[in-house]
Write a structure and sequence with these properties.
This protein is mainly alpha-helical. The chain has one domain. It is built from three helices and two strands; from the N terminus they run E-H-H-E-H. A two-stranded parallel ribbon has the order 1-2. Helix 1 runs antiparallel to helix 2. This is DUF4190 domain-containing protein. Keywords: Membrane, Transmembrane, Transmembrane helix.
Length: 122
């Protein structure tokens, strides 16, 4: 069976077994995306490290569950987006921490060392 002249024939799908579950989106995929988004939005304020780390851990669990389900759990695109956002959040946290450390070192280097006495004290 072909759809039109010159096109590749369509593959015939075998009928599904009646006891096979319907494919559904994994609920952890939504959670990974939401936590990744929160981690990316709050990453510049160091608080984004917690939701981003949780998102990456949930993504690992969700991938294992999706693999074990044999294709009946969907949501791989949401997982990828959530993982990317979580990694962006962690990079923003790292940039914020490095920036704060550099600012602290520069301020510490510019401040006087030791006790500052009046000019008339030996």
């Amino acid at each position: 069976m072909t759809t039109a002249a010159g096109q590749v024939p369509l593959a015939h799908q075998p009928p599904r077994h009646p006891l096979d579950p319907d494919p559904v989106r994994a609920t952890k995929a939504r959670a990974v995306f939401a936590l990744g988004l929160i981690g990316a939005l709050t990453g510049i304020f160091v608080g984004g490290v917690v939701p981003a780390t949780i998102a990456l851990q949930l993504a690992r669990q969700a991938r294992r569950e999706a693999y074990a389900s044999g294709g009946f759990l969907t949501g791989a695109a949401w997982l990828r987006r959530g993982e990317r956002l979580a990694r962006v959040g962690l990079v923003l946290v790292a940039v914020a921490v490095v920036t704060l450390v550099v600012i602290g070192v520069v301020r510490l280097a510019g401040s006087p060392y030791g006790q500052d006495f009046a000019p008339n004290v030996d």
